[in-house]
Amino acid sequence: MITLLKSGEVYAPDYLGQKDILTAGGKIAAIEDNIELPNSFNDHIEVYDAAGKIIIPGLIDGHVHITGGGGEGSFKTRTPELMLSDCVKGGITTVVGVIGTDGSTRTMTNLIAKAKGLTEEGITCYCLSGNYHVPVKTVTGSVETDIILIHEVIGTGEIAIADHRSSQPALQELARLSSESRIGGLLAGKGGAVVVHVGDSRQRLTLLEKLVEKTDIPISQFIPTHINRNRELLKAGIEYGKRGGYIDLTTSSVHGEDNELSSSKCLKKLLDSGVDISRISFTSDGQGSLPKFNSYGELTGMEVGRVTSLFQEVRNAFLKEGVTMEDAVRTATSNPAEMLKLTEKGRIEAGKDADFALLDRTDYSVSGVIALGKWMMKEKEIIKKGTFE
């Protein structure tokens, strides 16, 4: 399929102005002020008038419970699997699947199978090896070998720290796991990132800070997530980010988008505090459970994360919080692509994958989605749904 998008306003995420974009074979073939093709190509090319549309890279959601999550309130609280249309509605073209608390009934083989299924349905899906607990449960016996031999596996996680649901890993255990992940990534040409779930404990980021201080593993190997969980963790995250660490903000929140801990508001605080935009990402925690616990660790309520919250918080950042559109878009495109070493994703430039979200210029809603050069949503109509939707 060859598609020519004409006269869209492009944020790549850097602002490029009005451009034509030519896609072929699932890749971006050219970006120019004006692209004219010979008439002989008319029968083989779709020309789409993108005037009045903003074109941004397809969003990357680096933290989604694609096989469902939850279970902290017994079996009836297990959340459902991710559906393709949920990603399409939210302008998401790349997803990274994770397992959370439950590494017993949620298995790596199931996670990889679901990743393959979503990829067959039209988006790009990867996953991480392991879950909350150390030692992790893998497919091959080690995260290093999982990363090297299994195409979909690009890193490790989500490993839980500072949380009553974690396995309370010692520094040396986490260091060894992180080393395996890093080496697997180096040998396979992947990122090998270690995604770290950070809970409500007063330990906050202390374990990660000690690990970076006492070992040779670089701070860029880690992506601590849920940093907007509470005010004190956010403060710790600001200092961690200033030291060059990555910070991931969760857009699905039990606090609600108007709360001071919403991702969009926290992004503004991070930037105002001097954290470089390149160190910050948004992820949704989609299909994950959002449990509420009291001071005794007892479950008091639960909600479900939504992947559609990712774009909502990107949009809120530039419409409500005064963050530039370029910086807001970076948090869910080029930044996660760099953190996870997804070299074909996250930017609109020749040679990259043809993944786009088209926004209506009047209200900045998602009106179109193209994944690997194929339309998934067009004029706000979903034209590609999951197999059983």
In summary, what is this structure?
The protein is α/β, with parallel strands linked by helices. It is 26% helix and 28% strand.
Account of the protein in words:
There is one protein chain. The protein is 26% helix and 28% strand. It has helices at 84-89, 108-121, 143-149, 171-188, 206-214, 231-242, 263-272, 309-319, 325-330, 334-340, and strands at 2-11, 15-24, 27-32, 45-49, 53-57, 59-64, 92-97, 124-129, 153-161, 193-198, 222-225, 247-250, 280-283, 289-293, 299-304, 356-360, 366-371, 374-378, 381-382. The strands form four sheets. Strands 1, 2, 3, 4, 5, 16, 17, 18 and 19 form a nine-stranded mixed sheet that branches. A six-stranded parallel sheet has the order 6-7-8-9-10-11, with helices on both faces. A two-stranded parallel ribbon has the order 12-13. A hairpin with a 5-residue loop joins strand 16 and strand 17. Helix 3 (143-149) runs parallel beside helix 4 (171-188), helix 4 (171-188) crosses helix 5 and helix 7 (263-272) crosses helix 8. The chain is globular, with a radius of gyration of 20 Å. The model has no long low-confidence stretch (mean pLDDT 94).
